[in-house]
Amino acid sequence: MSDQPIFACHDLKIEARPHGKDPIPIVKGVSFDVNPGQVVALIGESGSGKTTISLASLGYTKPGLFFSGGEALLKGDDMVSLGSSEKRERRGEHVAYLAQSAAATFNPALKINEQVTESAVIHGHMTQEAANVRARELYEALELPDPDRIGGRYPHQVSGGQLQRLMAAMALVEKPSLLVLDEPTTALDVTTQIEVLKAFKKVIEEEGSAAIYVTHDLAVVAQIADHIVVLYGGEVMEQGPTEQIINNPTHAYTRRLMAAVRPRPAAGQGEVTSDEHLRDVPALEVKNVTAGYGKNSDGTPAIKVLRDVNVKIERGHVVGVIGESGCGKSTLARVMAGLLPAADGQVLLNGDALKPALRERPKSDLKQVQFIFQMADTALNPRQTIGDIIGRPLTFYHGLRGRARRERVLEILRLVELPVEFEGRFPAELSGGQKQRVNLARGLAADPEVLLCDEVTSALDSIVGANVITLLERLRKETGVSFVFISHDLSTVSSFADKIVVLYAGRVVEQGPVDQVLTPPYHPYTRLLITSVPEMRVGWLEDTMGTREALAGISRGVTITEVGCPFFDRCPMAIEGTCDVIDPPRREDQHGHGHILECHREIEELMGEPVAAE
Amino acid sequence: MTDTSATTPTEEPGKTIYDELPDAPPKKRLRLSWVGKISAFVVVFWVFVALFGTWLTPYSERDYIEEDRTGEFFDDPTFMVPNAEISSYLGTDYTGRDVFSRIIWGARTTIGISFAATLLAYFVGITLGIAAAVAGRWIDAVLSRIVDAILTFPNIMLGLIVIAAFSGQVFFNPISDAIILLVGLAGLVYAASVFRIARALGQDIMVQDYVEAARARGEGLWWIITREVLPNAAMPLATDFGLRLVFVILFISSLSFLGLGVPPPIADWGSMVRENLSGLGNGFFPREGTINAGALASVAPALAIASLTIAINLIVDDISAQSGGSLAKKMV
């Protein structure tokens, strides 16, 4: 048994069979083994077939796909050729699947424990009592808080990171020999990602099960996998032990994947502040803005998401706004765009106050601030052609029609490096990265002063995301447009921003030029964020979990407070009786770089060691 | 997935280029199953009959081909066809008219009125439904409560009340009055359910990012409704149109069955079923030399109603099954 792999793919072929057309190969003869206790990572871009291959271990294909050759041996049985009842017996007991989004996997109407134990009880492998004991054991192994009672809660009552770990409990409840994890941390914040990765790693080691880990993130793979299979277009480009792939990649494609990984945030990466487009007034300025959702009887927002925020965006600069989800990043952008009128404070465009609500802003003001939505999939109307999508702002703001408009559309398509033939296509016919380019092109067509980019690369693969960033860098240089770049990914922001704004629970805790923010003194929250960015090195996870920032700050959620420093409950340096009750003072640096941080601790206390290893 | 050439690395002198892999799903073309194809044939057949059938029938819907010796029903001798050929396919009805011809003429009446009523329901329902979804606030509240009120009445009951209220008044002539009343009544009754669907679809679409993008651009309501919302609601609404048409056909036929539909001598499938109910006990064809209806005189129009409505239903099912059931969910 021990010398036989848990799972083995031999020349696996899967194809799509569209009606009335020739079959299209999706997986073109893939072979790899998963040995007992081993974690094998399938890495590649979207469309590389990694999810399709991982699903083959369950003997499952997505609708429209068919096995066309080869074997997928689970403990020696070919999952491809087994009958459906035999497959069903093996699913859950021998192999379990962990999907990307825990929020979509859990039924919101049932308690967590019911769902975690369900498969074991339904298959008749365990009694409800035995399954409950087993589930409790797993909650403890996954380091979930209050393992005795967490199963009695509903999915919406636990945090995203906890839900992701509970999903692992659901998969592991029957002690499967093989666990298939499909991008389980991709949608998470860096701090949550650490917490989930650590729990997964521990539980896989303790349970002794083998795992297939599907992802596009090499840095994550370096932490968790023993063996890496690099895929492109349904073929294996390269495979080998993690150490070898990470340190000595031999295939050109692997090297390209490595190149797309952003270096860890550190001073000296940001753009040299380009001042050629500078004017005496900032392009956009946010002054003492308070904003939120809902309304109290006195007109203040019921849920205050932003509290007294001040940000300046100089002309031609890129301002990166970072923070975990729930910190108010998108809310800030929505206030700037006018989609959410501020309850208090002002937004100034070239020194003049903008009307808070959209309806009151004249077209000339609307044109200047363009909002780029996060998901190009939903931000482009599926019933409009690319030409219409890009052409509309041209007609709407600039009155261009007919030939003039068409020529400008083609010009903009070339500007964002898309073929001009895309003019007549619909969004569904484009890839994710291409759609994001169209999304950007629509904003550019307005010829704006400021482009607000809300997590525009977060949903993209590393390579595709890197291409979009390169494009943004070029556009900034050529057009002099200012960018507000919102992201939870500090390494992306620090690689091309001029200035970083660190938001925490609706407060700007630190802001300034990239070099200043990324060298000590750090705000404790900035330090936590920098520490949490995964490094592409084996053993990084263990090192990081030992730092005091991680011990204090990981696995805690963002809470919005009315007074004091909101970071108080996660800060390793918090002063009880001060930080939680008094608003922290603004500390500006003496050198006039515009570096501001808000903390009760003295600058000297915040110096510490630089966290980014070169 | 659609373009295989893009998934293989392109070799160029000196370097290898890895294209962005397309993640567009293969375009799905609508393909009906064989049940759907048969159903489509049935529907096309009836539409053809409704449009052109009246030119091909041996007699008009008003023609009497069997002599009424009792004089009981024979109101207008000008419609008596001399030396009529009686050996027609479905026999004669209770007053001696040709059932075959009347079913074909009835197709025109039934399908025509139902189609017009459904169009009206769609026009009113979509306009108000989308308006409620887009405007929200009190406009939505008022419209929704009115629709709720309409929906609480059973349709037939509502129909009875309205027809009773208008009975006895003649505006143009009894026949065109009845047609206008039926179209208007069915149109408004079913506009309520179309409103519900259009409003739900509209609300779904209104929160999409592309609508928000249009709002952020400063677009007016008219643009948002006609360019962003309606095109995306069109497909589910078109599918629902089929179902709604079925309900209207059944509604109109029910009213006719109760004697509240189009007045005689106009042929209509619902009233034909009722008029000839007495024939059910008479065997398939009427007895020679009498003007009693045969069972077919009542069963044939009933079968016509059933075949058309079931066929439309099956097509709609087929389409929603192919769209992954997402359409079906929205139409409940």
Task: Write down how many β-strands of chain A occur, each being a DSSP E stretch of 2 or more residues.
Answer: 22
Which percent bin holds the helix content of chain B? 55-70%
The SSE order of chain B reads EEHHHHHHHHHH
Report Rg of chain B: 26 Å
Instruction: Give the number of helices of chain B.
Output: 10
Largest interface: A-B, 51 and 34 residues
Low-confidence runs of at least 5 consecutive residues of chain B? 1-16, 327-332
**Total number of β-strand segments of chain B?**
2
Query: What structural class should be given to the helix and strand makeup of chain A?
Result: alpha/beta
User: Could you give a short account of the major beta sheet of chain B?
Assistant: 2 strands, antiparallel
Largest sheet of chain A: 8 strands, mixed
Strand arrangement within the widest β-sheet of chain A reads 16-17-18-13-19-20-22-21
Rg of chain A (C-alpha, Å): 26 Å
